[in-house]
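Moderator note: this is an archived Q&A kept for reference. The question asked for a predicted structure of one protein chain; the sequence and the answer are reproduced below.
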Amino acid sequence: MIRARKYRLYPTVAQEAQLLAWMEACRRLWNYSLLDREQAWDACKRELDENADGDASAIKKKWSISYIDQCAQLTKSRAQYPELRDVPVKFARGILKNLDLAFQAFFRRCNNGETLGYPKPKRDAPNLISRDAGEVGRWRNGKVSVPNIGLVNARPKAPSNLDVKTLSIQYVAGKWYAALAGDNGILALPTVAADCCIGIDVGCSSLITTSDGEEVKPLHYYRKAQEKRTKLARQLAKKKKGSANRKKAKLKLARAEHDVANARETFLHTLSRQLVEQYDLIAVEDRIAGALLQKKNGGGQQEKGLHKSIADAGWAQLVEMLEYKCEEVGAQLVRVPARGTTQMCSQCGAIVPKRLWDRVHDCPECGLRIGRDLNAACNILKRGLQQIGRCSPDFMPVEGRESCQV
């Protein structure tokens, strides 16, 4: 299975200076490469306007710039600029590949009518990525091998047996990390029988509500740290731009936000592992977080607060963790359509309209009265079982284990 492991790096002063110089050169490479593509597109539009009767496809092909074209230009630039020549060519090509992937994703979103997200110039240091790491980037005696630098001290989270293909070096809030991705030599386990099933509904008042009635409250890491973050942001705003004190204040703010992200990630890792070890089939809603965060109904501060709570909960991150952990143990993760899971009665199927602040499901047809989130979790489980062909729309089986009963 293809897996990635993340390690904390502890480079020496000289190694850190070298890595920062590479990142600055790669940042400029990204910006100039982005500018080249924009200028080529402007020239293409001018020629299309001047030659309205010409072959549009031939004109676009003439001015298009691909990843291969920019790699060829990189070879010439490395001979001209010493600071770019010092950067390992694998890292430089990794920057160009990331830019190419960013444009591919942009055009795909344009075709699908989604939020565009045009690639932007980089102000901060980008990640150093080598997609053909090979021997370089391997884990050796507690150290990570980095091209043109050698071995860098690292602290592993777990033993690594990866056949490394990709090496990514990140600089976040004054801390260095290395992500090694590759094949760990373990074959994917066959899917086990879904003897113990569960449906999960995510929310703000309860992070998750399961179809067996259990609730996990969110810990609100961001909101708890918001007062400290606001104080640090005010201190940063008072510092003179370009001063050493401003850099220190900016680093303090970045570290505070990084600590929040790490705490949330640790909690979600623990929760997802518990769910995967306990259940054979987990049904979740499909893309619910992204859909809610993209809604803009003019709700003002109330809507902003809701978006902040959704982002703080980490719904999408939890589902991503469940997905790859289910693959490791042979469990199933089923994504079901989210539409109507809250309004539909899980017992009789009647539609019971609810507003956001209505927290109880009270069905006038069958008399079922349960929590709103529990009703949604039961509907999610029912749809998940229907999706794998385990039951008909009119029948909801009761699982063998008591902890899995709906």
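Archived answer notes: The chain has twelve helices and 14 strands.
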